[in-house]
Design brief:
Elements (H helix, E strand, L loop, with lengths): L8 E5 L10 H9 L2 E4 L5 H4 L7 E4 L2 E2 L2 E2 L3 H13 L4 E5 L9 H10 L4 E4 L4 H9 L11 E6 L12 H4 L4 E6 L5 H10 L7 E6 L7 E6 L3 H6 L6 E5 L25
This protein binds S-adenosyl-L-homocysteine (SAH).
Length: 260
């Protein structure tokens, strides 16, 4: 297949979990791969689309439970491509957002291997869709910032809180559950109002999806009640919650909300 010759690598976005949010291109590439290295965040419904006979290799990393380090993953991709496989690297959401894609692209290029990216629906977009709201608001939320609140083990978060504490921005904090207290304290210290609306959403797009609408000063308490699934913190005026929001959302799972 010309799109996916033997000995090449595709970095493919698997979206937030719901297989219906996969692109048609991603689905086609999945059908044509010979080996798929996939992350822990790739939804089970997406993996169900993998045809029998395709080798499925988990290389998932969830915080605290590292199964493969990044250098080993880079090496696996290169070696599989050198062995003539059609290598698909399946990543949660969009591969270009907090996905360590750069290391994999560089490793492939350094080895002279053709590598390309197929985009995916990122968690923040899926969350907005489920919640039935917009991440930007004309005149009120003119800026959208994707930031990760994940620090290397034992190291403090190095974030420029002043630049993030913008009342006219929406902040999508990836990997922010463990740092919820720090996020809340530092954004308030940098001037963001305590009553700034926040929505925490876990397992966006999956049947187990759950969200909680709260405010910045209560974020820490709310984050403690979350389960083990991936969660996104959405902060800013655009997150003002109204009961009617969900009427337009496609997800029918009852959500637990407080203070709405
Ligand atoms: N490349 C991915 C992000 C990887 S970082 C993307 O574009 O979405 C992993 C973080 O993404 C998680 O810690 C969580 O903050 C967020 N995330 C991924 N999938 C999610 C989901 N289904 N619901 C909520 N947050 C999710």
């Amino acid at each position: 297949m010309s799109e996916f010759p033997a000995g090449t690598v595709w970095l493919v976005g698997a979206g937030p979990g719901d297989p219906d949010l996969l692109t048609r291109k991603a689905e086609r590439l999945i059908r044509n791969a010979s080996v798929i290295f996939y992350d822990a965040l790739v939804g089970p419904g997406v993996l169900d689309l993998v045809p029998p006979g395709v080798r499925l290799v988990p290389v998932g990393k969830r915080s605290g439970r590292h199964s493969k380090d990044q250098a080993s993953i880079d090496r696996l991709l290169v070696e599989a491509a050198q062995a003539g496989e059609r290598v698909l690297r399946l990543k949660g959401g969009d591969p270009s957002i907090f996905g360590r894609s750069n290391e994999e692209l560089e490793a492939c290029r350094a080895a002279g291997i053709t590598v390309a990216i197929c985009p995916g629906v990122t968690a923040a977009s899926a969350a907005a869709a489920s919640l039935g709201l917009s991440l930007t608001l004309r005149g009120l939320a003119r800026k959208l910032t994707f930031v990760t609140a994940h620090a290397r083990a034992g190291e403090p978060l190095e974030i420029d809180w002043t630049s993030l504490a913008d009342p006219e921005a929406t902040l999508a904090v990836y990997m922010g559950k463990a740092a919820a207290r720090e996020v809340s304290v530092n954004l308030r210290a940098a001037g963001l109002a305590p009553q700034t609306p926040v929505i925490v959403i876990e397992n966006a797009s999956l049947p187990s999806e759950r969200h909680i609408a709260t405010r910045l000063d209560l974020l820490e308490i709310v984050a403690r009640s979350l389960g083990a699934g991936p969660a996104l913190l959405l902060i800013g005026q655009a997150m003002q919650w109204h009961r009617s929001n969900r009427a337009s959302a496609s997800c029918e799972v009852p959500a637990r909300t407080i203070s709405d």
